[in-house]
Amino acid sequence: MNEGKMVSISHIAIAVRNIEDAEKLYETALGLKVTRREVVEEQGVRASMLETAAGDTTIELLEPIGQNSPIYKFLEKRGEGIHHICFKVDDIESALERLKKQGIKLINEGPRPGVDGTKVAFLHPKALNGILIELAELPKE
Amino acid sequence: MNEGKMVSISHIAIAVRNIEDAEKLYETALGLKVTRREVVEEQGVRASMLETAAGDTTIELLEPIGQNSPIYKFLEKRGEGIHHICFKVDDIESALERLKKQGIKLINEGPRPGVDGTKVAFLHPKALNGILIELAELPKE
Q1: CB A13 within 8 A of CB A63
Q2: With a cut of 0.95, is the ipTM above it?
Q3: Of A5-19, A105-119, B66-80, where does mean pLDDT reach its minimum?
Q4: How many other C-beta atoms are found inside a 10 Å radius of the C-beta of residue B40?
Q5: A12, A57, A91, A99: best to mutate for the B interface, most B CBs within 10 A
Q6: CA nearest B24 in A: which residue?
């Protein structure tokens, strides 16, 4: 039964000014491998996913593609660094329902479409020690 | 053959002011489970490890136990938030050797003893988009 449980940590998202430079750095220094690149127009970002040799948690590099991008604003205000942590959940509606009942402040009250058919929602950083947390439910197979 | 490869993301460390409150929050809101608590005197912290239902990457909560703790200074300067990301490596000496050759700035030139018989070292945040990265090699079984 799905209960809105956190199954695993899906990825750690890092805001960068130049995604090609960052890719090279993470590949060369950390030996990570780029597995996917995409442009997410509605969030105004170019994204690259990088994986380790064996772990299931990945690194997501994010570069803004316009000044309206939340990542652009993040870079202006705080500089490069970790932008959010994404938890994979088994059932995002149940998770959000439970969080609301617990009084956890949400940015998205309901799920919205993410990349590759995922459903995603962000919790408010004020709720969790200043950390922006994304929940993502993968599409059913 | 071990080449100083990043095997997986071991944990994401979060600096908090009150570890009991944070544990409760992460257990209740995110459904994580505390699997280990310890005091690391030489780093001046109390640490709690929390895991998700199925993922191998964990969350490490860190509360300072004195004003000399790097976590105390972090909290004073930046407030609560993500302190570092730890990558599990197959061979920490090889990894540090390679990083040095690549001109990556290190905080620890050689490995030092971590918890539970691990060998650990920190890279300089300037080297990687402002992110503090720890490498950890687990003891041989």
Answers
A1: no
A2: no
A3: A105-119
A4: 14
A5: A57
A6: A128
